[in-house]
Every structure is written in C-alpha cells, then in structure tokens.
Amino acid sequence: MLESVRSSSPLGAVSALAVGAVSALTLVSARVAAEAKDLVYEVDDAPAAPVVIVPGARVHRGRPMRVLRSRLDVAVSLMEQGRVQAVLVSGDAAGNSGDEIEAMISYLVEQGVNRERIVADPYGLDTYDTARRAVATYGVRQALITTQSFHLPRAVALCRRVGIDIAGVRAANDVRPRTRIRNLAREYMLSRPKAFLELRFPRDPAVSTPPDDRLAEILSGLEHGVVATPPSDS
C-alpha cells in the first residue's frame, strides 16, 4: 500500500502543477479580458473616432492573408460609413512573411481608401508596441482598433493602458479550424500572460522614433477642407 502511494506521488504532483498552471492562465486571461469589458462592437455599431488602428499580421507574396484582410475590410467599412477619418496601419515592415505595411496600404487603396488618409507605422512589432507608438509617435488619443475576437480584449486593454480612449471592432475570423485552434492556444498561453505583465509593468516600445505629425495634419486638414499629402514611398 505504501509503495502504491509513493509511486503515485509524482503523477499527483504533475497533475497538481497542471491544474495550477491552467488556473493561473485562466485567471490571467480573465483579468486581461475584464479591461475591455463593454468596449467591443460590431462594425455597424461602432462609435465614431478620428482614426482606426489596424494591427499587422501575416502576408503572402505581398498580399494580406485572411486574418489581416478581414481587419482591413473593417477599416474600409468604417471609412465608408464615416465613423473614422483616417487609418493607422501598424505592423512589421520587415516581417518574416514580408512587408506588412506595404501590403496593408496597397489593399486599402485597392478597396477605395484615399492614400492621403492612411498613416503607416512600420515598427508596430507587437500589440503593445502598436498601442504605445500610436500615442508616443503619432499622438493618438482617441481611436478604434480592429482585430479578431480572440485578440480584441488584449488589444483594447493595452490601448487603454497607454492612455488611448479606445473601442474595439470585431473582424471576421474566417480561417481553417486548425489555424483557429493554433491562434487561440497562442493567445491564451502566451500572448495574454505577456499582456498581463505589460499592463502592470509598462515598457518602452522596441523601436522609438521621433514624433510624427502626419496623422494630426490629416485630421486638421480635413477640418479645414484640405488633405495632407502622403510621404513619398521612394
């Protein structure tokens, strides 16, 4: 009997650790989600704001993949409905899958968004950096942010933490089941615990650059009937 108890002890310890880890992840996820409570909308119900932030995601051969394309489609709808006046695309211009920024700009323009209403942040290397740089570099104080439902609570929470008056707008999550499972696993096991720490211990973005007035110029120009000219891509 004693031998049986001893042999089962390691398994019991592992089980206890597993239960503890799952409980901790669940608590962390709930705390992050609570930061975004009542701040998530469908596109047709979204409040007005000066700008919508579109976080980057994977591209393929210079084209947005499904996840990113869905986010951009929401931005297009918000512009068409007059709920926002400009789009801030934020991603990695040197990403592993390609230039997220160029892909986003090209797609938006193809869908009829005026290039002069688009501002690009090539150093939005993760969601926290996107939020922090939106404030520190581009002077964003009020905005919408669009991404998939699994990502929105984290995105909204981080934007709130850095001082943005933010609301989230759901984008479609039209991906294969295995991709959806992988995204959810990464979100709950890695991304939200990371965000939990960032909410409590703010850091500087990975790349800091001088303030950029392009967004302010666009919005000011619209108020006075003049649209700022976008920077040259050369």
From TrEMBL:
Report domain DUF218 positions.
Answer: 51-177
Q: Which InterPro entries would you find in this protein's record?
A: Cell_Envelope_Assoc, DUF218
Coiled coil region boundaries: none
Q: Could you state one GO cellular component term attached to this entry? A: plasma membrane
Q: Which residues cross the membrane?
A: none
Q: Which domain of life is it from?
A: Bacteria
Known PANTHER family for this protein? INNER MEMBRANE PROTEIN, PROBABLE PERMEASE, INTEGRAL MEMBRANE PROTEIN
The name on file for this protein is Membrane protein
